[in-house]
């Protein structure tokens, strides 16, 4: 265990020095190879390539493209108008619409940053025009953006499924109810603030005539069909999640053409951005897969299992509590994708022998990690929203953290009631 302590120490020191995750993992892995000269270097290349050959993993760039294309094709504006029509009549209606629109957009993009950077700009612009405080607008936008990786199709779920050999379809179905629960908890907190806080009582209502509200429904149906195409094709046994991603890509292109927003230039830009982002993910994943092999060889999962068994005993709730606290802390310092790649091969093998459902645990891990996206010091969504909204990061953080109790409440419910995760996969896949 001294060897694993050394390479983890090197990894953490490099992270604290500001070295990108992929290079920190690579340096720690190279150090292990130097400490074990009998291990052929071909082992590294084999492990790095084997993970990338996963058919499941091909779905990730597909969903990345869909999310970016939805922003390009003007879908975000249509979803926001529909959301305003549905919940704008309540006090703080645009804040409710912000959360609802993020839930709807999450069913197409599966990405928190895409939500914060694309839909977020439209949301904050509309809220500022309606007289909402810019800090408040930025805070709710950052908080609602984290619903992206929870509601399918989630790119993080694809990564977890590929690494842990868990059915991506099970993860997709398992994320539906927790995603709705978190969005509902967020809207519930907004409602409470509107009633019981001085500032909340000044929030305006956004009343739209019923005729105008009804017109938003047919406008929203084609974009919302993306979720139906993805989940329906998987549920019907027509497509695998990877094939469903390809169908969603074509549907996104069709919407862009129909809305007359898609040009050859915008299509090329979207493809370029998708390839760049996917390439970064693939590079991190290849290096992380070798690092995961190292820690498995060194016996870290087994040691972690023994440690967790001592700390938690036979209590699964206590086990979840310990792991959740760990995930939330790590999520404060690493982006969700990198943290997922690092933790999945370490923690999942340690907890599954204890009788914990892997789909349930994976969803709890994803939720806990994604909360870190709005938690200092390195909350990625905070910086994205601050950039697009022109609000200082400090003020965005202060407002976004007000929704942390709602998120933690939803997370506790997901931990306490596994059926919130396991019921839909059991019903739909059996």
Report on the structure:
There is one protein chain. This protein has 430 residues and is an all-alpha fold. It contains 21 helices and no strands. It is globular and about 75 Å long.
Helix content: over 70%
Distance between the termini: 42 Å
Q: Biggest β-sheet, characterized? A: none
- Summed up, the domain count is 2
β-strand number = 0
Write down the overall geometry: globular
| SSE order | HHHHHHHHHHHHHHHHHHHHH
Count of helix runs: 21
- Beta-strand residue fraction: under 5%
Flag low-confidence runs: none
Rg for CA atoms: 22 Å
Q: Mean of the pLDDT scores?
A: 84
Helix/strand-derived category reads mainly alpha
Would you kindly provide a brief summary of this structure?
The protein is mostly helical.
What layout of secondary structure does this protein have?
Elements: H1 2-16, H2 21-35, H3 42-52, H4 59-72, H5 75-87, H6 93-109, H7 112-129, H8 134-145, H9 155-164, H10 168-196, H11 210-235, H12 241-258, H13 264-297, H14 300-312, H15 316-331, H16 336-351, H17 358-371, H18 380-389, H19 393-400, H20 404-416, H21 419-429
């Amino acid at each position: 265990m001294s060897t694993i302590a050394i390479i983890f120490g090197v990894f953490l020191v490099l992270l604290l020095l500001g070295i990108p995750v992929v290079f920190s993992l690579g340096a720690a892995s190279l150090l292990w190879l130097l400490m074990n000269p009998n291990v052929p270097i071909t082992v590294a290349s084999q492990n790095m390539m084997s993970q990338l050959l996963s058919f499941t993993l091909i779905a990730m760039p597909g969903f990345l493209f869909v999310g970016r294309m939805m922003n390009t094709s003007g879908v975000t504006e249509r979803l926001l108008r529909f959301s305003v029509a549905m919940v704008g009549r309540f006090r703080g209606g645009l804040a409710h619409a912000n959360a609802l629109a993020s839930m709807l957009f999450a069913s197409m993009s599966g990405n928190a940053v895409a939500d914060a950077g694309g839909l977020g700009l439209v949301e904050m612009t509309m809220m500022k025009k309606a007289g909402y405080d810019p800090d408040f607008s930025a805070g709710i936008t950052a908080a609602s953006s984290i619903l992206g990786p929870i509601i399918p199709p989630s790119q993080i779920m694809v990564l977890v499924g590929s690494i842990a050999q868990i059915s991506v379809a099970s993860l997709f179905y398992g994320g539906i109810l927790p995603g709705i629960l978190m969005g509902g908890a967020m809207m519930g907190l907004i409602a409470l603030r509107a009633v019981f806080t001085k500032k909340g009582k000044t929030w305006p209502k956004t009343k739209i005539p019923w005729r105008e509200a009804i017109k938003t429904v047919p406008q929203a149906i084609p974009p919302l069909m993306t979720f139906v195409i993805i989940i329906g094709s998987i549920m019907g046994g027509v497509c695998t999640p990877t094939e469903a991603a390809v169908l969603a890509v074509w549907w996104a292109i069709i919407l862009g053409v129909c809305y007359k927003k898609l040009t050859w230039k915008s299509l090329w830009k979207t493809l370029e951005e998708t390839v760049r982002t996917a390439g970064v993910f693939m590079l991190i994943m290849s290096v992380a897969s070798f690092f995961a092999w190292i820690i498995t060889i060194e016996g870290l999962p087994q040691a972690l299992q023994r440690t967790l068994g001592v700390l938690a005993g036979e209590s699964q709730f206590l086990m979840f509590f310990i792991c959740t606290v760990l995930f939330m802390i790590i999520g404060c310092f690493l982006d969700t994708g990198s943290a997922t790649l690092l933790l999945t091969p370490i923690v999942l093998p340690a907890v599954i022998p204890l009788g914990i459902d892997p789909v349930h645990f994976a969803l709890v891990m994803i939720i806990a990690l994604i909360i870190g996206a709005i938690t200092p010091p390195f909350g990625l969504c905070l910086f994205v929203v601050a950039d697009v909204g022109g609000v200082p990061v400090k003020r965005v953080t202060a407002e976004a953290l007000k929704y942390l109790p709602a998120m933690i409440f939803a997370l506790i419910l997901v931990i306490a009631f596994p059926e919130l995760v396991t019921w839909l996969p059991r019903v739909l896949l059996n």
